[in-house]
Amino acid sequence: MNKLAPNKLALKVGVLALVIAQAACADDTDTKAAIADVADAAAVGPDTGVSTPTSEMENGVLMKKAAENEAATAAEGNAEDEAITALLASIDQRIPGMPIKSISATPIDGVYELISEGQIYYINKDANFLLTGNMIDLETEQNLTELRLGGLHMDLLGDIDESNMLIYEPEEPSDRSITVFTDISCGYCRLLHEQIDTLLDAGVRVRYLMFPRAGLGSPAHQALESVWCADDPQSAMTVAKAGGQIDEMSCDTPIEMHVDVAQQVGLRGTPLIYLDTGERVHGYREAAILAKMVKDGTPYVE
């Protein structure tokens, strides 16, 4: 009876283990069958006169299937690009001048996500219908629209340098935060500000963006400008939100920038709160709850 030399036996076992592992990971029937053939060949010993397959045999099978899969993927991508190009042309005819940031496929066949001025719309492939609202995955119970909006809005907020925000810092340095569109005359904004120490004690930075609900040029705008221009804006904001008087001051401010971003994210009332996870909170929420939501979540990454 012939015996394999130790080095040949090790080679045979190694090749067999490799192809079996690859067969288990393959995601199509043809690839699995091809790899199985290699595995069968590897399993036949020298006693039958069949040689152990070389790595070149195995690699040839895998490379062929990889090339076929890559070609199929490229074809699908080209078809999708052509569909989006045609859709853009149809939109230009039906809604001329609409500013479009991006169009991409959704989990629903024939329905595309359209992003315009910080908002998400859905449109069919022939541009006959334009929809607004939430797309919810019933299997995962995820609000896909809200998840996408959170990311889009975080990108907009990320364009604002922190030097143009009014920020309250915890005693210990922290990289966790909430960003709040706020107004001095807003009752719930005042209530949240009264609890700001709860957030700071939890290691959550509070970043204020100023939004005068009465509009630019209003007394509310002037009050926010006075806060920004004060020698100690943080203290001035606290006094103003407690109903105290602060000196009227004037200087260059980022208020108009804040208002512009607020309009892009569709703000309809204050406070509007963004956790650093990308989640939006419409209206007031207790500071302790906000702190827990931040700590339990993972920071958003572009």
Short overview:
With 302 residues, the chain is an alpha+beta fold. The chain has ten helices and eleven strands.
The gross shape turns out to be elongated
What is the CATH fold-level name of the domain at 156-296?
Glutaredoxin
Q: Give the fraction of residues assigned to helices.
A: 40-55%
Order of helical and strand elements: HHHEEEEEEHEEHHEHHHEEH
Number of helices: 10
How many β-strands, per DSSP? Answer: 11
Low-confidence stretches: 1-6, 8-26, 45-51
Distance between the termini: 64 Å
Name given to the CATH homologous superfamily of the domain at 156-296: Glutaredoxin
Please give the CATH class of the domain at 156-296.
Alpha Beta
CATH architecture of the domain at 156-296: 3-Layer(aba) Sandwich
Structural class: alpha+beta
Whole-number average pLDDT?
83
Q: In which order are the strands of the major sheet placed?
A: 7-9-8-10-11
Question: For the report, how would you describe the main beta sheet?
Answer: 5 strands, mixed
Topology of this structure?
Blueprint: H1 6-25, H2 29-43, H3 55-94, E1 102-105, E2 111-116, E3 119-124, E4 130-131, E5 136-137, E6 142-143, H4 144-158, E7 166-168, E8 176-182, H5 187-194, H6 196-201, E9 204-210, H7 219-229, H8 233-241, H9 255-264, E10 272-275, E11 280-282, H10 287-296
Parallel strand pairs: 8-9
Antiparallel strand pairs: 1-2, 2-3, 3-4, 5-6, 7-9, 8-10, 10-11
Helix pairs in contact: 1-2, 2-3, 7-8
